[in-house]
Amino acid sequence: MKLSRSLIAISAITALGVGALAGCSSSESSADGGSGSSGAALTIAKPDGAITTESHNPFLGDSSASKYGYAKVIFEPLALVNPTGDLGTTPWLAESVEWNDDYTELTVVPRSGVNWSDGEPFTGDDIVFTFDQYLDGRLADSSGLNYQGATVDGDRITLTFGDSKFTAQSRVLHTPIVPQHIWEDIEDPNTDPLTADGLAVGTGPYVLSSWTTESVTLAANEDYWGGELAVPELHYVSYGDNAALTTALASGEADWAQAFLPQIEDSYLSVDPDNQFLVSPTAGAGTLFFNLQTKPFDDPALREALAWTIDRDAYVDIAREGASEAVWNVTGLGSVLADEIVPEYQDAEYSVDVDRARQILTDAGYTWKGDALIDPDGEAVSFSISVPSGWSDWNTEQALIAEELDEALGIEVKVDQPDWGGWDAARQEGTFQAIIHWLEDTGNVYGLYTSTMDPKWIVDDKAQFNFGRFDDPAVTEALNTYANASSDEERAEASAVLQTAFAENVPAIPLGAHPLLGEYNTRNYVGWPTEDDQYASADPTQPAIVQILTNLEAK
């Protein structure tokens, strides 16, 4: 399964209306938003603590617009890439998007009849201007787009890139488009907070109404191109931690959130039959990474034995409380990419098979002294596994792995829970033994294999992925071929090489899909993504929030 190359000319999207869950204070503050709606306001919450500095710049990762997530309902992208479901692409500000064969050129047709929220018309010039800012350094290319320029032929705009964007389609398509008539006068868009009057102008369904350190309010855009909106206002609030967020969701003080809530059945779902929780598997996975440069993980036999011992179902059922899907295939690929698995590995699944694991170790020269596993050098096998303190799901998985490996194989596993800074330094510098981490999610098989086997991530001896520092020239060549191929056939051939290398070397162990999560309620609105209709994830921090908001209808 891969992202769609071309999705041509969908007719103008009819906005059925947005709205959401609202209860208590949020449903009572339902002033007319100006779009003809008088429904309940929607409070979108995060557990990130106070967000004290005002900034509406969508290109700044530390702006309040990015941290709260409200940038995504003001500034819209060319298209929306669904990271779950069918991995499809829905044109948005573009009426159509089409990649060339090697994914170095993207041709788009701007949507007609769209206005900026200040009333000025949106045109293709705004698209070209937005991307051209990368050419002269006005905008830092933090997403690695390697944009080279644009050509215009009638109403068709072709954006050119210096390398293939097959594995980074969403980074291109999700670039927030900004108005040239405002941004051309901004001296430094890399730093400007857009807090002066009239700067926070977008094409999105909502416009900024008020900002305080406690709450940000957005009102429905009266002239939204998608039509009338059901929800008149959005309130963005950040709580101190997950416990406070859970209480707010359960009481109806908050309506929509993205968070892992421990004991979610008792703390949230059972409180109100309208409370809903959607888990959307992605191509990414929570993954156990090994330091392949040091004992005990420099031995592939030891890694393989662990792969036959660690219980992925326990990870899903206990650590993630059901909010995941186990990954058992030896290629490391989960259900979202199941049809990408080559035939010889389609049915090649790990299981918890302690006898097989012990035989692998015995054949490799390991022995046991009492219950303790002894390596071929005569040393007891032990290692530490590191996850930041407070990451409750992965902290639980640390304890599960420690118990499983001690009981089954006689390996002492030390649980390490440093602060984030210490953990981050160790993963980059390679001073850890094992860590649990996420993958670079590219929406295709490349994400897993570049994350675990690609030397490109090691820069100045620091790792951003491939923390185990796996290095095999044949694998590197296959990764480069996959990323830059001009045909599906080339990518399939490269994928086969990568799947074989992963199955044979076990450079890491994916445990379970790293899903997008969403808590919401159906008290006031219908039209939410569901398990049976995952047209988007229910995560309000994702770009597809605009798709959800235009799909909701008042009950």
Automatic annotation (TrEMBL):
The keyword Phosphoprotein does not apply. One of its GO terms (cellular component) is periplasmic space. Residues 90-449 form the Solute-binding protein family domain. GO terms for biological process: peptide transport. GO terms for molecular function: peptide transmembrane transporter activity. Residues 1-22 form the signal peptide. PROSITE patterns: PROKAR_LIPOPROTEIN. Keywords: Signal. InterPro entries: Peptide/Ni-bd, SBP_5, SBP_5_dom. It holds the Pfam family SBP_bac_5. The keyword Signal applies. This is Peptide/nickel transport system substrate-binding protein. It comes from Microbacterium ginsengiterrae. The lineage of its organism: Bacteria, Bacillati, Actinomycetota, Actinomycetes, Micrococcales.
